[in-house]
Design brief:
43% of the residues lie in helices and 15% in strands. By secondary structure, the protein is of the alpha+beta class.
């Protein structure tokens, strides 16, 4: 438990809630994690939707919706899923263990993900990079050169 506090306080909170899972639910969760990450070592990362996730923050501030499942897609090929999954979702005092992937995000939401280290690193592209996030959400792979944007009337 001490180690979980050192890594992220949200992980310690997750363990507190996970201890209340029935044996059947706990087994299903373990199988889901194994199915998602395979035999690779699992890491956990907690994010807060806001200034730490600038691309997601801007998307939401523009009045657009984004669901958790969008943060599970590969930034290089949106047809592929990253080897990670949400373990816990927190909005205010509401906590959801194994949140639904269709949950729409709001500024201030907290999500605890587990997954393969390299896949969690890829996920940061979606959180930080407007172009990567736009591609995953819309399929538009907007050119990034200034000339391309000017010729095609593309904003950023």
């Amino acid at each position: 438990k001490i180690l979980s506090h050192l890594r992220t306080p949200m992980l310690a909170e997750y363990f507190d809630h996970a201890l209340t899972l029935s044996e059947v639910d706990a087994r299903e969760l373990i199988q889901r994690i194994q199915h998602t990450v395979g035999d690779d070592p699992v890491e956990c990362v907690a994010i807060e939707i806001g200034v730490d996730t600038p691309a997601v923050m801007r998307w939401i501030e523009e009045g657009r919706s984004i669901a958790i499942r969008s943060l599970l897609k590969s930034p290089s090929d949106r047809r592929h899923q990253l080897k990670c999954l949400p373990l816990m979702f927190k909005r205010g005092d509401h906590v959801d263990i194994e949140p639904g992937e269709l949950t729409d995000l709001e500024l201030g939401d907290h999500i605890l993900f587990c997954g393969v280290h390299e896949e969690l690193l890829k996920q940061t592209w979606l959180l930080d990079n407007d172009r990567s996030l736009r591609y995953v959400l819309t399929g538009d792979d907007v050119g990034h050169s200034v000339l391309y944007r000017i010729l095609n009337g593309v904003d950023s």
